[in-house]
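dumping this here before i forget
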Amino acid sequence: MNGLFQHAPVLPVVIPLLAAFATPLVAKLGKTVRRTWVTTALVGTFAAVCLLLWRVLDSGIQVYVLGGKSSTLVLPSGMAFPVRILFEVDAISAFMAFSGSLVAVAVGLYSIHFLRESSALEKHDVLLLLLVAGMLGMELTGDAFNFFVFLEVASVASFALIAYQRKRPESIEAAFKYMVISTVGALFVLLAVGFLYGRYDALNFAALASWMELTTADKLALVLLVASLAMKSGAVPMHMWVPDAYGEAPASVTALLVSVSQASLYGLFRVVFTLYGLEMNVLVVGWIIIALGLLSMFVGVTMALRQHDIKRLMAYHAVSQSGYMFLGLGVGLAVLGDPVAFGAYGMKAMEGGIFHIINHAMYKGLLFLTAGAIFLRTGTEDLNEMGGLGHKMTFTTVCFIIGAAAISGLPPFNGFASKLLIYESVYLFNPILAIIAMVVSILTLASFVKVFQSAFLGPKPEGPQPIREVPVFMQVGMGVLAVVVVLFGLFPGAVLDYLVHPAAQALVNRAGYIVQVIGGGM
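structure:
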């Protein structure tokens, strides 16, 4: 058991990575064995993340060294070659891993029946596990270059899964667009890492933060990192890939892509809070992030209102909801240098933004899964060709109502709890920003009322194939997320105390992160 605890920081990445490489061999034993293997790996990954989260909350930052206790390997020529890779897990990175791995479990269960008639399920399972490994690696690594590596792993798996329905030209186009955007974004990240490495001869986040001097190279790196990670997060005006990618990927994949985008969002916040912090002009950068949030909220919701494709509509709402996260964290960053303002509302704004990250992953994942259930039974994603599904798909209808109420910020669901924190804190910073955020929620509600009326109300559907509820594993996948949405809404205080507040504290405690990591190790 002590050995398990010792390796807790790396297990969430190792389990899905090894499972991905073993899946082609396991597939030789049959479809049932392969699906059991994949689902078990995803559940095991979530269990490892829970263990890691408990360790972090109980004992503080966990530092894990790959490559031995020595930081260098001396080659026969006498040259010292660096081989050490560090995983550095604090409360915010463990929080993000918990959110993403929970969605992955729901997606794994849902996919058992959703894609059972596909001829490329083995490839899907391998790519899904690689996507989870890349996402968790981005959130748990403490090394700038390895963040880039895991970003690329997640990106490659993502555009392969977006092109999963390869007979559709739209899917290939969406995958190509995502590939180009991801390549440009990854190049920006690599250039930024190069600037930092050339300046400080280091790649470790804590070491870079401790030596940060904000030279011209550092400023260029900051611009490149903010631009690329905001683009990967789907922030307006760099959101052009989101509607196509989310709209064309299988619904189960799209639900997980939301969490993968949030891994890039985590990377952005790790850069501005931990890597740079008060070394930069936090007011200017904070307002830039706030502006990205406002644009994302407004453009996303207005574009969603005119959509009749249910998945593209939900994709634009994903853009809109990310704006709340940018807004909350942006306000916290803008007042980071003012202890009075930060204590009065800055920390509360950050807690609202961080709480909204996990809430969004849950209810948006749930909504995409319900969209997949609708497509499975109707064969269409066009709202104009649906109607009356509530008569035959009761469980899916209930799950959709839960997700729609949560994303619209209605009590007692989780979206209300995090949005209320954002409204209250942002109002103290700038009332106009809070009003805009509330108007966006009203428009979101109007949009989902339209979806509910089009898809679920009306007379019973008629057609060559009778409409019926989706298979049990799809219901289980949706049910997992629906239960979390309800529980987080009913007991927001517990979530704030045990998950959100420690994560927010870890993100702003730059000095503590530096001291614990540089002074730690295994």
